[in-house]
Design a protein that fits this description.
By secondary structure, the chain is α/β, with parallel strands linked by helices. The strands form three sheets. It has a five-stranded mixed sheet. A two-stranded parallel ribbon has the order 6-7. Strands 8-9 form a two-stranded antiparallel ribbon. The chain has a single domain, classed as NADH:ubiquinone oxidoreductase Nqo5 subunit (Beta Polymerase, domain 2), CATH 3.30.460.
Length: 212
């Protein structure tokens, strides 16, 4: 039964060839690794490519399984070099399924700007993307143009920053507490001092040595 969840090597090769023929120069990258296909698409092409992925009779990717943001930080330098692009830090990852053709593909879209990452919304193509895009906006600060209701979904409205960014401090920027005088919840600067904890490891002499 588990075999039904994976594509055979022949299916992978056929799908990869179909994707190359259909998209041609719209593909920034195509990789086949670990029994999966990942295509790289430029931010300007994400809506056009997504429509073809859904509607083309050879693809039929009618289901968006998941969408998430990612912060490559310095790793983005290597990734961008492979796609002949300048260094880009933030990306959006789309996991797509064709129920009719029983095939899957992953699409990766790099945001053009590190300071203000923006990618077009695909909510009109897959409506389930609505909450997924709000999550990526909340956690990574990626803005999805054309989204009908782009606002935080996991953190509260007074939250500062984007907690899944790799440069986000572990303590956060503010802390929340109940103020008895004001009789409401308030925000204040973090009172925990940042520190590094190095575990103390104690081993007995000759620990682990084999007996002769």
């Amino acid at each position: 039964m588990l075999d039904n969840f994976f594509m055979s090597s022949t299916q992978l090769e056929n799908l990869a060839e179909i994707l190359r023929n259909i998209f041609r120069d719209k593909l920034a990258d195509l990789q086949v690794q670990h029994g999966e296909i990942t295509i790289g698409v430029r931010a300007d092409d994400v809506v056009a490519v997504s429509k073809i992925l859904r509607d083309n009779s050879q693809l039929r990717f009618d289901t968006l399984i998941d969408l998430c943001g990612i912060d490559y930080l310095t790793y983005g330098e290597d990734l961008a070099a492979k796609q002949n692009l300048r260094n880009m830090r933030f990306a959006v990852i789309y996991h797509l399924l064709s129920v009719e053709l029983n095939q899957r593909v992953r699409m990766r879209v790099l945001a053009e700007s590190d300071e203000f990452p923006v990618v077009d919304s695909v909510t009109e193509i897959w409506s389930v993307a609505n909450w997924f895009e709000r999550e990526a906006f909340d956690l990574y600060g990626i803005v999805f143009t054309g989204h009908p209701d782009l606002r935080r979904i996991l953190t509260d409205y007074g939250f500062i920053g984007n907690p899944f960014r790799k440069d986000f401090p572990l303590t956060g920027h503010v802390e929340m507490r109940y103020d008895a005088e004001q009789k409401r919840v308030i925000y204040q600067p973090v009172t925990i001092e940042p520190r590094e904890i190095t575990p103390l490891v104690i081993r007995e002499e000759h620990y682990g040595d084999c007996e002769s």
